[in-house]
Amino acid sequence: MYNWDFMTVVIGYEAWWLKGLLVTLAYASGTVLGGLIIGVICGMGLLANRWWLTGPIHLYVEIFRCTPVLVQIVWFFFALPIIIGIDLPAWLAAGIGLTLYMGCFATEIFRGGIISIDKGQWQASRAIGMTYLEMMRHIILPQAFRRMIPPFVNQSVIQFKNTALLYVVAVPDMMYTGYLVVADTYRPLEVYSGVAVAYFILLYPLTQWGKRLEARRDQ
Amino acid sequence: MTNSAEDPGRPKLELTDIRKNYGAVEAVRGVSLAVESGQVVAIIGPSGCGKSTLLRCINHLEEPTAGKVRLGDQEIDYSHKKGLPRGRALARFRGRFGMVFQQFDLFAHKTVLENVTIGQTVVQRKPRQEAEKVAREFLDRVGLAGMESRLPRELSGGQQQRVAMARALALSPEVLLFDEVTSALDPELVGEVLEVMQTLAREGSTMIVVTHEMAFARDVADKVIFMDQGQIEIEGSAQEVMVAPTNPRLKSFLARFHGNGGQGSP
Q1: Is residue B125, in this structure, part of any structural domain at all?
Q2: Residue-range domain boundaries for chain A
Q3: Does ipTM come in above 0.90?
Q4: For A92-114, how does the pLDDT look when each residue is reduced to its tens digit (9 = 90+)?
Q5: In total, how many domains does chain B have?
Q6: Separation of CA B124 from chain center
Q7: B1, B182 contact by CB (below 8 A)
Q8: How far is B166 from chain A (nearest CA, A)?
Q9: Any chain A CB within 8 A of the CB of B88?
Q10: CB contact under 8 A, A127 and B99
Q11: Contact yes or no for B105 and A123 at CB 8 A
Q12: What CATH homologous superfamily does A6-218 map to?
């Protein structure tokens, strides 16, 4: 019978765990926010229908959508410095990778939300004399945002979990902290179970919130 | 776009040789049309004849491939692509027309009252209170007083279409464009919409009505146009075009509507 001992992996490591939690939360919120900004800009760019804008944006979206985020983080940390000749600190390389990854999905969500608005709404706005910006601001975006929220929440949940990949470049998030504590205490069962439960406690409310938004949208 | 002094002798709206191509498809093939102030023009014709496209070319919802559109003293010449109005100038030109669509296209996230005020506040920069007063007047005129705080999806098709009319009318447009506005309605709701249009016609609105309601065209229009294959085939008074047609294509088109066209106006 295994003798559970959670005290050993907590007592004396409180500061580590707290830091790990904060790093995870900071990366989750920071990369989601950064991704959102990229998504709005690139999504707008896609709608502009200029090939010199849409071409590079499509390329970006497809590259980041079709490669694993783990590969991206590792690439930004180990490969990019060779190209640009500057060593990126791990926290920055990983942050860039995760943000761009979120950004490509946010771009698709943003674009999808806008083109899902019925073409009648566009023509009616134009017919009453609105300019493009007036139409976007008063008619299209308010409706599109409502539709974007559920997919955006879902993607944010995925993004939150992806922050665990930070551990490969030794950014001290919850996962990497767990790895350090295991090395110190030789108690992987308690540590990794605890880490899993912590992620669950943080994310379960978010998924439930997403479900509620989804339900409200169906009404 | 050119500006010249308003000539009282000229028609209010004039289309000159309007063409619209989609790739190799010629949807509108050189239509010229003059509409006098206060005139009601009905455009009839088989589906795909280009009548809706023509209507959408008038207020630049579709950009004509060639031709000229003149409204009052403002003319757009589509053969000079570089001189075409863009951005705000184009939007304001459009705003001089009022348009009502087949699928109503009310702003889904806005209440009935907001649908009728938003053009006034955003496009015409009227103060909200004034805009709401105007909106209430027009909602009352189309028989929807008391519905101000409803959302479009809570209304019947006929009610939505009447809100759409109030939305267009509240901007005091110079010409009203109706694009098959009763085609998406349940038969029992068609009457209430046509009734509003009839009142508008009687009160002297300038209207261009693309329609399949033959009785309406016959009884209300000052001028009826039969379009076929992107061109005006026949143009004349309702009497000339609809009561005693001689053109074989028009005849066969009208024959399909006899049940409908034979009954009086709704």
Answers
A1: yes
A2: 6-218
A3: no
A4: 999 999 999 999 999 999 999 99
A5: 1
A6: 21
A7: no
A8: 12
A9: yes
A10: yes
A11: yes
A12: MetI-like (1.10.3720.10)
